[in-house]
Amino acid sequence: MNILAIDTSNQVLGVSLLKDDQIIGEIMTNLSKNHSVRLMPAIERLMGEVSLKPEELDKIVVAKGPGSYTGVRIGISTAKTMAWALNIPVVGVSSLEVLAYQGRFFNDYICPFFDARRGLVFTGLYKWKNNQLLNVLDENNLLMDDVLKKLEKEQKKVLFLSPDISVYKEAIHQSLGELAVIPEGPYHVPQAGHLGLAGMAKEVTSTHELTPNYLRLAEAEANWLKEQKDKENHG
């Protein structure tokens, strides 16, 4: 089975090609650049490098968020368009779940997160058991202070993984001390190969049913809805 994995949900742009569970090619950049301009050229280049034609693809796996609203939309719209044109299935995988694959051989809790500004994070809690990634705490948009208080009560070792680790590193150490495990830089960058692997076992839904996992409304949309509600209340 030939799988194309696409991740533009955050700053990292990752594209990977897997033949069954083996990565045969991958392109990844961790730069603040426009994903919309760079995604298709990256896919075309990678497929050319490994001599794979689009019609030889069997499945597309895409990171569906949470993360950057624009980035999530770019990845999902590209994946859905390609899947529809090629008449092949497309699968969405949580961007947090992809990051949790970096802790594949850690035995305790794994806490992946993305900074959502103003002290908030997109996060969940995971644990690997019997070669399966279990969701211990549902993904949510929470204050990092509240997340750390909850983990402090558990008194268990926690592996923290995030491309935004530097923002909360000090707070994590202050709250959890030696219970906090924070690895070196490369472990905090989601890998498109892991995305492809995670998507292999996922149930396929129809192309049109695949929707982004924003975890919260974009600020502009939230403000607009608030204005509409205010108008109704004062109407």
Folded structure, characterized:
By secondary structure, the protein is α/β, with parallel strands linked by helices. It folds into two domains: 2-94 and 190-224, Nucleotidyltransferase, domain 5, CATH 3.30.420.40; 96-188, ATPase, nucleotide binding domain (Nucleotidyltransferase, domain 5), CATH 3.30.420.40. The chain has seven helices and ten strands. It has helices at 35-49, 69-86, 95-100, 144-154, 165-176, 192-200, 219-234; strands spanning 2-7, 12-19, 22-30, 59-63, 90-93, 109-115, 120-129, 132-143, 158-161, 180-181. The strands form two sheets. It has a five-stranded mixed β-sheet, sandwiched between helices. A five-stranded mixed β-sheet has the order 8-7-6-9-10. The mean pLDDT is 93.
Shape: globular
CATH class division of the largest domain: Alpha Beta
Helix percent reads: 25-40%
Low-confidence stretches: none
Rg value: 19 Å
Q: CATH topology of the largest domain, what is it called?
A: Nucleotidyltransferase, domain 5
How many strand elements?
10
Q: Give the DSSP E fraction (strand runs of 2 or more residues).
A: 25-35%
Structural classification: alpha/beta
> Judging by the overall fold, what is the CATH architecture of the largest domain?
2-Layer Sandwich
CATH homologous superfamily title of the largest domain: ATPase, nucleotide binding domain
- C-alpha termini separation: 58 Å
What is the total number of structural domains? Answer: 2
Question: Summed up, what is this model?
Answer:
The protein has 235 residues and is of the alpha/beta class. It has helices at residues 35-49, 69-86, 95-100, 144-154, 165-176, 192-200, 219-234, and strands at residues 2-7, 12-19, 22-30, 59-63, 90-93, 109-115, 120-129, 132-143, 158-161, 180-181.
